[in-house]
Amino acid sequence: MSIANPTVEQRFAFKAPLPLKSGSSLPEYELVYETYGELNADKSNAILICHALSGDHHVAGIDADGKKGWWDGYIGSGKVIDTDKFFVVCSNNLGGCRGSTGPTTINPQTGKVYGADFPIVTCKDWVESQNELRKYLGIEQWAALVGGSMGGMQVMQWAIDYPEKLRHAIVIAAAPKLSAQNIAFNEVARRAIMSDPEFHDGRFLDQETVPKSGLALARMLGHLTYLSDDMMGTKFGRELREDKLKYNFDVEFQVESYLRYQGEKFATKMNFDANTYLLMTKALDYFDPAADYDHDLSKTLAQATAKFLVVSFTSDWRFSPQRSHEIVKALLDNDADVSYAEITSAHGHDAFLLPNDHYEGVFGNYMQRVYDDIPTAEASV
């Protein structure tokens, strides 16, 4: 299939060592990224999108394989993040498996695939690498950073570590740190992968195999946490695949079939790397910026100077509205400029990816504010 004007991957190669929060370092690294729209003359209209756990740099448009970007409904000409107004950048995180340096790429020191030898990376490390990309692109200050879920955590880390490098921070369906329950979910997912006989202590690529069963189970568990009980009830209820019970352990309920399909697709068609899944979930567990400020979130966010939009969804039980309230309170404790919206949705944590008129209205209005704040003559017309 021929795609007219497909999105094009670009690469940023950083040849100096990158020290990591863990104490390890990468001798060099690459970030794969895509851009949309045009950078204005003074490079003041740039937006950085930070992706969630299984996301990547292909956030909008159609790529050469015909795949639509994971947030295509919100980014593009005339859309919420309007590429007629903004220059939009999204990179694949370090440790990813979509082209950026990670477990599936070559370790320059050994000439072999990193695999299990790839070091633990954190949200802080992602921000450091993204900041090097910013400098490479010649962008002095982002007009805004935008991220949902794990992406929202990166936005917060940016606002804390590089407050002068962003004017607006848009944090969607996120939390200031994971709850014990969320850490537990991540640990069960990791155990599913690491217990797969095909995992081989993370060296499965050397064995020319993939821990598909473990990955599928991890994705099934994750998917459960992204949906709300009401949504699953409405979509599936207790509907059977056939018209009678079979009294065995085969798939009988439609919801079982759906989860198995999602797990199988993730492990096979999406080809997501198992070591990357372990790294991303561990980075989520470790995210706790307040730990560097006496575990005081208000003191932590006192570093931030950006204007904030914080968005939560009523049925999101993984990162509930109460977690967003914590962020908003800490910002207000510092007299920060913060807007907050709690969106009614039955779609659970996945709501930030899906169409919703109220959400799109709030988001779109705020993006107009971001545009109006661009320090150019054009924006004041």
Describe the fold and architecture:
By secondary structure, the chain is α/β, with parallel strands linked by helices. 33% of the residues lie in helices and 15% in strands. The strands form four sheets. Strands 1-4-8-5-11-12-13-14 form an eight-stranded mixed β-sheet, sandwiched between helices. Strands 2-3 form a two-stranded antiparallel sheet. Strand 11, helix 2 (150-161) and strand 12 form a beta-alpha-beta unit. Helix 1 (123-137) packs across helix 2 (150-161). It is globular. The model is unreliable at 377-381 (pLDDT under 50).
Looking at the structure, what is the overall shape? globular
Task: Round the Cα radius of gyration to an integer and report it.
Answer: 21 Å
In which range does the helix fraction lie? 25-40%
Quick check: average pLDDT?
A: 93
> Mind summarizing the main beta sheet?
8 strands, mixed
| Low-confidence runs of at least 5 consecutive residues | 377-381
Question: Based on DSSP secondary structure assignment, what is the total number of beta strands?
Answer: 14
- Portion of residues in beta strands equals 15-25%
Q: How far from one another are the termini?
A: 43 Å
Secondary-structure-derived class: alpha/beta
In spatial order, strands of the major sheet run 1-4-8-5-11-12-13-14
Number of helices: 10
Instruction: Encode the helix/strand succession as letters.
Output: EEEEEEEEEEHEHEHHHHHHEHEH
